[in-house]
């Protein structure tokens, strides 16, 4: 069975996660997989851009590098990046064939979509010097956490995936931070208790933990400022860039501007038309950064949301920069009921309508998840 058919038979999301299934599967085939140096990127926001900044710099420095991200916007190949490009269809299918030859059929069937594709990526990354692995959900029990790591990088941690991670910052942060192993770097945090928890976990694990403030030199800060200005990066992307440069130097390299002179990962405040910006953020922390980036401006927000997100808080945070909301239809079972979303907009006194088409006399912000981005790009292609 080819990869498309094999993956289409697997549900993308589960109500219950079997935390033992993937480690057992990995143990069976670990001897058949190559062992590149793994940099694990964990957090609530900024994982994709931080990882891509780091992966691109390592590649530009002459290393063979893979970057594993999720979810994708338009096609699965986006998740597996190798040396500056997403994986080709032929290489992806070849990795599937190889994985099928070393993983018994029963185990392959039982693995979740994300679990199988994590192993698929590791097969595709054979021969890489470094692999930057972005955690999918949480950290401690995420499939990406089974691999030995040379460095764990923690981006800002906030409330998210409450059904799995809990409803307190202690439970969310603890689950993410317990993924650290030998060396870890933690970025700037909104919640002070995150750093306290990180120090406690590091002590328990005997992990050397560094804060970005203590690792960021004037040299790094100068480069980050210049690159941010040249590329029009927002404050949060500049912070992610600085975190990536600190990680790069912790790996034993010297940060140079030419290695980091690039755009962030597509979908992070990406200008896709003269009057259209797209961002795949979908939680309050992302909304705060968007509101800060658009302070003093007004936009038409093209929006929809998963029902498990705190969309009332998200819209409340964004309300100072919203002129009107245009709700875009998204074909996904997790999307909130239209009536519930409209009720939140009415409560917040935010005018709304249905998205029909982009008009040239309006400034648009597309925001609300990868699914919203995909729906918009398909509608406007």
Give an overview of the whole structure.
The chain has 381 residues and is of the alpha/beta class. It folds into two domains: 3-260, 3-Layer(aba) Sandwich (UDP-N-acetylmuramoyl-L-alanine:D-glutamate ligase), CATH 3.40.1190.10; 270-380, Mur ligase, C-terminal domain (Protein-Tyrosine Phosphatase, Chain A, Alpha-Beta Complex). Helix content is 43%, strand content 15%. It has helices at residues 3-8, 21-29, 47-60, 89-102, 105-110, 113-124, 162-165, 169-177, 192-205, 212-215, 218-231, 235-250, 257-260, 284-293, 311-318, 338-347, 370-380; strands at 37-42, 65-68, 80-82, 85-86, 130-134, 151-154, 183-186, 208-211, 270-273, 276-279, 299-303, 322-327, 352-354, 364-367. The strands form two sheets. The protein has an eight-stranded mixed β-sheet, with helices on both faces. It has a six-stranded mixed β-sheet with strand order 9-10-14-11-12-13, with helices on one face. α9 links the parallel β7 and β8 (208-211). α4 (89-102) packs across α6. It is globular, with a radius of gyration of 20 Å. The protein starts with a helix and ends with a helix. The model has no long low-confidence stretch (mean pLDDT 92).
């Amino acid at each position: 069975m080819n990869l498309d058919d094999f993956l289409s038979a697997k549900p993308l999301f589960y109500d219950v996660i079997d935390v033992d299934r993937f480690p057992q599967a990995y143990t069976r085939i670990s001897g058949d997989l190559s062992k590149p140096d793994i940099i694990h990127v964990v957090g609530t926001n900024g994982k994709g851009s931080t990882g891509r900044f780091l992966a691109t710099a390592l590649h530009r420095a002459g290393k063979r590098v893979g970057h594993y991200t999720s979810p994708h916007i338009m096609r699965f190949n986006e998740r597996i990046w190798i040396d500056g490009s997403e994986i080709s269809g032929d290489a992806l299918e070849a990795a599937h064939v190889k994985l099928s030859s070393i993983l018994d059929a029963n185990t392959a069937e039982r693995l979740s979509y994300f679990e199988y594709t994590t192993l698929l990526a590791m097969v595709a990354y054979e021969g890489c010097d470094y692999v930057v692995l972005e955690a999918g959900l949480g950290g401690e029990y995420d499939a990406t956490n089974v691999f030995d790591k040379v460095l764990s990088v923690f981006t800002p941690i906030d409330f998210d995936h409450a059904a799995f991670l809990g409803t307190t910052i202690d439970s969310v942060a603890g689950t993410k931070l317990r993924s650290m192993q030998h060396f870890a770097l933690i970025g700037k945090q909104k919640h002070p208790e995150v750093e306290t928890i990180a120090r406690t976990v590091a002590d328990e694990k005997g992990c050397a933990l560094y804060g970005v403030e203590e690792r960021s030199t004037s040299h790094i800060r100068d480069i980050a400022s210049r690159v941010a200005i040249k590329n029009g990066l927002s404050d949060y992307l500049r912070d992610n860039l600085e975190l990536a440069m600190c990680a790069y130097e912790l790996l034993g390299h010297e940060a140079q501007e030419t290695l980091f002179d690039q755009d962030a990962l597509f979908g992070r405040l990406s200008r896709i038309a003269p009057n259209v910006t797209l961002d795949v953020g979908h939680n309050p922390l992302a909304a705060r950064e968007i509101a800060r980036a658009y302070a003093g401006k007004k936009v038409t927000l093209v929006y929809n949301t998963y029902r498990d997100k705190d969309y009332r808080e998200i819209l409340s945070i964004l309300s100072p920069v919203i002129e009107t909301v245009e709700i875009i239809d998204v074909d996904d079972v997790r999307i909130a009921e239209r009536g519930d979303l409209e009720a939140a907009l009415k409560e917040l006194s935010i005018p709304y309508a249905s998205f029909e088409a982009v008009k040239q006399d309006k400034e648009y912000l597309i925001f609300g998840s990868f699914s919203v981005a995909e729906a918009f790009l398909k509608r406007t292609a």
